[in-house]
Amino acid sequence: MLKKGSKLYSILTGSCPRCHKESMYLDKNPYHLNNLFKMNEKCSNCATKYMLEPSFFYGAMYVSYALNVALMVAIFVIEYLLFKATIFTIFTSIVVVLIVLFPLVSRIARNLYINLFISYKKEN
Description:
The chain contains three helices and no strands. By secondary structure, the chain is an all-alpha fold.
């Protein structure tokens, strides 16, 4: 399921959306917060430029917003329906989960956003 050539592979691994051979990020670990948004300028394998235009990744903030809203709704539904938790407990859980997953969601949002504009191209 998660193999090279699929958009899901590039989104989850942070690899180049064109060739899937190299990571787009200088540091693959999103929890190294100093390097969270530091990216290579282009892919050393296929020369795909990651910053398609100035301020390109501002659009990824909207994707991040949507992912975070989906995450909040999922946490609310799980805690309210399955565990019958109080509103305070649910609110606390949502805040903690969003803080802990912030780096991961930010990276996935960027990966998803760039994959909307660049497609995989199989080498000949």
